[in-house]
Amino acid sequence: MAATAPNPIVFLTAVSQRTKTMRLVTGAVLPVFNHPFKLAGEIAMLDGISGGRLDVGFARAFLPHEFRRFGISPDESQARFREGLEQIELLLTQENATHRGQFSFVRGRAPRCRGRRRSRGPNSTSRRRRRRRSFEFAGRKGYCADGDPDRADRAAASSSTASPGATPAIPATAR
Hints:
By secondary structure, this protein is mostly helical. It has helices spanning 8-18, 36-49, 64-70, 77-93, 132-141, 149-158; strands spanning 24-25, 54-55, 97-100, 105-108. The protein is built from six helices and four strands; from the N terminus they run αβαβααββαα.
């Protein structure tokens, strides 16, 4: 149900108020189409409201119709994803983060409800279309990645809708 939600944060906020121990998992949040400051604030707020039960997953967008709707070039997908992920992680882990990227600028800290995520960034995700480069990127950054990189490469090579480049997972955190 949440997997098809246009905003999994809103859906999971409602779920958090109806459950007490269930882990809340976003699935794939797309930084490409959202400002990092907005996403970081929403993530921090939901994590605080839920008592630290949130696991956030990010994915790189690849569907051409999504890019057309937002007026963004698909060629910018990888760069926007990586920049957005870096900025979100900074905003969630630093009190005074500043980062001037190619696509957005962030300064300060994300608005937050004081919860359990004060000193850590996002956690993990799952994606079906990931290439070996994605796993390598995730490993270099210390992020979680699941799946089989060989299978992902074969699927990408045989699919006409596969996007070139990486679809990295999210930063892993110590629990």
